[in-house]
């Protein structure tokens, strides 16, 4: 049997009814609730009016609940227990006991630089959790996050949507990368030498032979030859490591690569900020907060 909604934004009438059911006395119920006896009497009158029943009848030494009041006992207990749980402070997160499935939107460069360094930490601290990594177009991330499909995403600042919360992870810069032992690149090239190299670039949308580097070269009245265009940075690593092609690449991808060498660029190419993004619905959740802090402190 469900308890109907009493026309009050506060739970005092229900707590008063519970106290009366336990104490069978207005005086004892008032003492239990730390209220005055008249206050309890007023609330009892409102309860009688709302339920259309006397609820309690005079008896020797107190009051006896009516059949209607007895019918309310268990639903009332359930309702107050649910209210107590709903208003209790959020439980602390214990990684060693957690069995969460984390849903993260990341791909290519972002998986390698933001997620991969964190995996050993997550596995050690929260071994029973699972990680689901999905690839989503940036324009879909805010909507899918609001729907509960993802808990966290990695975006560059230009992709940031106002509906999400953000935390900056790091600022990335670009360097020139070639395979080790490249016959034409043994030191930092001049701008003229840079332009004479055959280049490979990443085109996330596919098929383009221009990027941010070409816009910078345009300002100097220069151009380069882009021979290969690929959709992913991690594939670009393999292409450069196995050919004589050069590439302007993110520093974090090449700094420890065993088959690549890197040099500072002869002309500055603007870098970018990598952000961690999440929906408002999980902002205060202790489990997701632990995940975000773990990622941020692992980089």
TrEMBL record:
PANTHER family: HTH-TYPE TRANSCRIPTIONAL REGULATOR LEUO-RELATED, TRANSCRIPTIONAL REGULATORY PROTEIN. It holds the Pfam family HTH_1. Belongs to the LysR transcriptional regulatory family. The keyword DNA-binding applies. Coiled coil: none annotated. Keywords: DNA-binding, Transcription, Transcription regulation. Residues 14-66 form the HTH lysR-type domain. This is LysR family transcriptional regulator. It comes from Luteibacter sahnii. The keyword ATP-binding does not apply. InterPro entries: LysR-type_TF, LysR_HTH_N, LysR_subst-bd, WH-like_DNA-bd_sf, WH_DNA-bd_sf.
């Amino acid at each position: 049997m469900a308890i109907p909604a009493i026309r009050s934004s506060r739970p005092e009438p229900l707590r008063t009814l519970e106290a009366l059911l336990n104490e069978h006395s207005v005086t004892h119920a008032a003492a239990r609730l730390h209220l005055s006896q008249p206050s309890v009497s007023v609330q009892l009158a409102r309860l009688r009016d709302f339920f259309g029943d006397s609820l309690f009848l005079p008896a020797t030494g107190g009051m006896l609940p009516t059949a209607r009041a007895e019918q309310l006992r268990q639903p009332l207990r359930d309702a107050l227990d649910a209210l107590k749980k709903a208003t209790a402070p959020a439980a602390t997160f214990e990684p060693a006991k957690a069995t969460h499935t984390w849903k993260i939107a990341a791909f290519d460069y972002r998986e390698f630089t933001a997620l991969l360094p964190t995996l050993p930490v997550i596995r050690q601290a929260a071994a029973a959790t699972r990680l689901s990594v999905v690839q989503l177009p940036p324009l879909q991330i805010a909507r899918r996050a609001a729907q509960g499909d993802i808990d966290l995403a990695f975006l560059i600042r230009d992709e940031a949507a106002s509906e999400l919360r953000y935390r900056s992870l790091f600022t990335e810069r670009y360097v020139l990368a070639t395979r080790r032992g490249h016959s034409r690149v043994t030191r930092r090239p001049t701008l003229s030498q840079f332009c004479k190299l055959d280049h490979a670039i990443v085109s996330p949308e596919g098929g383009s032979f221009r990027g941010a580097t070409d816009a910078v070269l345009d300002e100097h009245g220069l151009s380069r030859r882009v021979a290969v265009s690929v959709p992913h940075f991690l594939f670009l690593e393999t292409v450069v490591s196995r050919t004589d092609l050069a590439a302007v690449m993110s520093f974090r991808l090449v700094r420890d690569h065993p088959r690549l060498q890197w040099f500072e660029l002869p002309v500055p190419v603007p870098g970018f900020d990598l952000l961690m993004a999440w929906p408002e619905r999980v902002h205060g959740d202790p489990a997701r907060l632990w995940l975000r802090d773990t990622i941020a402190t692992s980089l």
